[in-house]
């Protein structure tokens, strides 16, 4: 079993002995790696993110204010994974900036309609919803949506068509035309 | 790849609302929140105000929505502890169905049993199981004396003589049954107190008796006797 995480962290803080961090690494490495792998779907990237998580934790050990060490490690890993995903997605997005959209002014203050739209979108599956937003709100092409999301072109077209069909059904259920 | 702009034959009002609705969403869209804000929103650490702001943004932003969707995989622990594994198993539909079946079965059996009990008509007296026959119990009383006419059935192999003697502590009792000719039907038998109050039961073999008058005599070791005449 060994001493609890919190005690080890206190020891590192007090003595600066980094070897005390080894048991923490051994205990939580597998779970952190599993979480990172689930997000990035890339073994090497997940390994890197896991290493970075523990290195960051060790470097910022003075900032640990008590509580659950695993939860703290998760928070660090979550930040790193998010940064990784964001960097990858934004890389695609930056390269494919679309033209500034033209909006109809009468809808700007029509919150009721927007809320209705949001509630319909939230009833779609996540891939359908994301593809519809990227395609109709951000005005990316289907090819761009495929690059951003990592779906194939065919998948994107299917999500767009099915999403639009489902959207219409829900729109009619909610009373049809505005 | 060409822009497909999918069409599925929707009517004009839908087309108008659909396009205009997304235009309105686009106009509402503000700058994307910083990664730290998104992370704290995902970790459930963001304030109410921040969370509401993120939700508003997510409604209009496909990129952030995609990020949050991807990050949901992070929140599902791929290696939960044993406690969580058991808890997860308890939450599976299969367990719920099994539990319901387990609870319903005794309830069903109880209902069925009650229904069956209701269907039974006590028209036919209950018969003893094969090979077991109830013994006829003959209540004897010294007051009634010879008037007691007991008539065990022809097929009875044994019958029981039941009688009361005012017993005393430390005293032994012996029973003797004699016929009209004064001869003992069987050897005298030591009586064991049945209930401590003086109620005795004496099991008799039917084969030893013929129709006629008999006297059951209970002799106390102190000398007192109690007679119970009966006839068969």
Brief summary:
The complex is a heterodimer of chains A (178) and B (232). Chain A is mostly helical. Chain A is 71% helix and 0% strand.
What does this structure look like?
The complex is a heterodimer of chains A (178) and B (232). In chain A, α2 packs parallel to α4 and α6 packs across α8. Chain A is 71% helix and 0% strand. Chain A has 178 residues and is an all-alpha fold. Chain A is elongated and about 70 Å long. Chain A contains eight helices and no strands. Chain B starts with 11 loop residues before the first helix and ends with a strand. In chain B, β6 and β7 form a beta hairpin. In chain B, α3 crosses α4. The longest helix of chain B is centred in the middle third of the chain and has 27 residues. Chains A and B meet through α2, α4, α5, α6 and α7 of A and α1, α2 and α4 of B.
Quote the average pLDDT of chain A. Answer: 84
| Uncertain residue ranges of chain B | 1-9
Write the element-wise H/E pattern of chain A from the N-terminal end onward.
HHHHHHHH
Low-confidence spans of chain A: none
Oligomer: heterodimer
- What summary fits the major beta sheet of chain B? 4 strands, antiparallel
Major beta sheet, strand line-up of chain B: 4-3-6-7
Q: What is the helix fraction of residues of chain A, given as a range?
A: over 70%
Number of strands of chain A: 0
Distance between the termini of chain A: 64 Å
Work out the strand percent of chain A.
Answer: under 5%
């Amino acid at each position: 079993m060994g001493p609890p995480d919190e005690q080890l962290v206190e020891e590192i803080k007090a003595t600066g002995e980094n070897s005390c961090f080894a048991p923490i690494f051994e205990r939580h490495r597998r779970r952190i790696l599993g979480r990172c792998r689930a997000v990035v779907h890339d073994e090497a990237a997940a390994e890197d993110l896991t290493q970075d998580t523990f290195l960051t934790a060790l470097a910022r050990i003075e900032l640990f204010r008590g509580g659950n060490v695993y939860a703290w490690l998760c928070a660090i890993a979550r930040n790193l994974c998010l940064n990784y995903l964001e960097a990858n997605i934004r890389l695609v997005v930056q390269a494919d900036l679309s033209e500034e959209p033209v909006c109809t002014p009468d809808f700007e203050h029509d919150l009721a309609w927007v809320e209705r739209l949001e509630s319909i979108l939230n009833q779609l599956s996540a891939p359908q919803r994301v593809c519809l937003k990227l395609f109709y709100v951000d005005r990316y092409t289907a090819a761009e949506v495929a690059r951003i999301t990592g779906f194939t072109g065919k998948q994107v077209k299917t999500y767009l068509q099915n999403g639009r069909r489902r959207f219409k059904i829900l729109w009619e259920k909610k009373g049809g035309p505005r | 790849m060409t822009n497909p702009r999918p069409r599925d034959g929707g009517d004009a009002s839908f087309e108008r609302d659909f396009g205009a609705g997304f235009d309105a969403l686009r106009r509402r869209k503000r700058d994307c929140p910083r990664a730290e804000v998104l992370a704290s929103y995902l970790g459930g650490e963001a304030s109410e105000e921040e969370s509401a702001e993120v939700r508003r943004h997510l409604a209009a932003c496909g990129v952030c929505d995609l990020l949050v969707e991807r990050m949901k995989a992070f929140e599902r622990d791929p290696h939960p502890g044993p406690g969580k594994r058991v808890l997860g198993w308890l939450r599976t539909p299969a367990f719920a169905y099994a539990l319901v079946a387990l609870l319903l079965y005794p309830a069903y059996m109880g209902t069925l049993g009650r229904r069956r009990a209701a269907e039974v008509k006590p028209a036919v007296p209950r018969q003893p199981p094969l090979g077991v026959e109830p013994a006829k119990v003959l209540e004897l009383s010294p007051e009634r004396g010879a008037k007691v006419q007991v008539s065990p059935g022809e097929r009875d192999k044994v019958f029981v003589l039941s009688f009361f003697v005012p017993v005393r502590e430390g005293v032994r009792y012996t029973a003797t049954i004699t016929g009209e000719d004064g001869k003992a039907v069987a050897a005298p038998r030591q009586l064991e107190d049945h209930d401590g109050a003086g109620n005795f039961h004496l099991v008799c073999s039917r084969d030893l008796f013929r129709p006629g008058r008999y006297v059951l005599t209970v002799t106390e070791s102190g000398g007192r006797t109690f007679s119970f005449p009966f006839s068969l």
